[in-house]
């Protein structure tokens, strides 16, 4: 089974086969990590995204990485938190599953993820971390050709939340 790492960093600087983008449904750029990825990738990314016709929440689409060090970008619109009774957990799990499946289908061996939906979409960090960690481990088991998945956290607080889930589930 592949390796799963958790660290704080800037996902746009990672030399991996694919980075996941916490996109909005238009795929045309937004705030947070989405904005950073579009800025770092250059105009080619936006042009390719325009041709994709958007993406449903929980689904994923792949583009080239353009000026990023990553070969591909996996775009996945995460759910907006509305209290948890509107299928948010299933949609968030689906984001990770679909990105990992797309990475596998495109021959990616290394993938970096941001913490999907925990920024302006308001998903409670601890709950999102539990879903992400569990789903990433399941993906590494299902697709042994994926050698490494890195959770790239935007702050030490987020990194600690993800590492706590790993330690709690290992204990």
UniProtKB/TrEMBL annotation:
<feature type="domain" description="Macro">
    <location>
        <begin position="1"/>
        <end position="170"/>
    </location>
</feature>
<dbReference type="InterPro" id="IPR043472">
    <property type="entry name" value="Macro_dom-like"/>
</dbReference>
<dbReference type="InterPro" id="IPR002589">
    <property type="entry name" value="Macro_dom"/>
</dbReference>
<protein>
    <submittedName>
        <fullName>O-acetyl-ADP-ribose deacetylase</fullName>
    </submittedName>
</protein>
<dbReference type="Pfam" id="PF01661">
    <property type="entry name" value="Macro"/>
</dbReference>
């Amino acid at each position: 089974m592949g390796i799963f790492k958790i660290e704080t960093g800037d996902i746009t600087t990672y030399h991996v086969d694919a980075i996941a983008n916490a996109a909005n449904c238009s795929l045309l750029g937004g705030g947070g990590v989405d904005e950073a990825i579009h800025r770092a990738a250059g105009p080619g990314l936006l042009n390719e995204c325009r041709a994709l016709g958007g993406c449903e929440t929980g689904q994923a689409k792949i583009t080239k990485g353009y000026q990023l060090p990553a070969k591909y970008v996996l775009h996945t619109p995460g759910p907006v938190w509305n209290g948890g009774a509107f299928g948010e957990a299933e949609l968030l799990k689906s984001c990770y599953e679909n990105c990992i499946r797309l990475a596998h289908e495109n021959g990616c061996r290394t993938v970096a993820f941001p913490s999907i939906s925990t920024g302006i979409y308001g998903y409670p960090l601890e709950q999102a971390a539990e879903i992400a960690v569990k789903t990433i481990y399941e993906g590494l088991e299902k697709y042994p050709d994926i050698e490494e998945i890195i959770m790239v956290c935007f702050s030490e607080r987020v990194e600690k939340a993800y590492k706590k889930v790993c330690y709690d589930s290992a204990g």
